[in-house]
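Students often ask why inverse folding is considered easier than folding. One informal answer: many sequences map to the same fold, so there is more than one right answer. In these notes we will look at a single instance of the problem. The structure comes first.
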């Protein structure tokens, strides 16, 4: 599998890091901000796609 780079603004990275810290403390296992981003990408892509399509229809 090849990898690509995804640029993330610092403010977005900080939000992901804070979420990773909260998740880590609740599950008792170290979670990285990249783990959170990867989970979101893999599990929420369909909802994001539908949401963006609906928003686009509202703007037209």
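Output (designed amino acids):
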């Amino acid at each position: 599998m090849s990898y690509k780079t995804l640029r993330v603004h610092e403010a977005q990275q900080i939000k992901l890091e804070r979420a990773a810290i909260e998740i880590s403390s609740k599950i008792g296992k170290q979670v990285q901000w990249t783990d959170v981003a990867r989970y979101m990408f893999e599990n929420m892509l369909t909802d994001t796609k539908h949401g963006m399509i609906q928003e686009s229809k509202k703007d037209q």
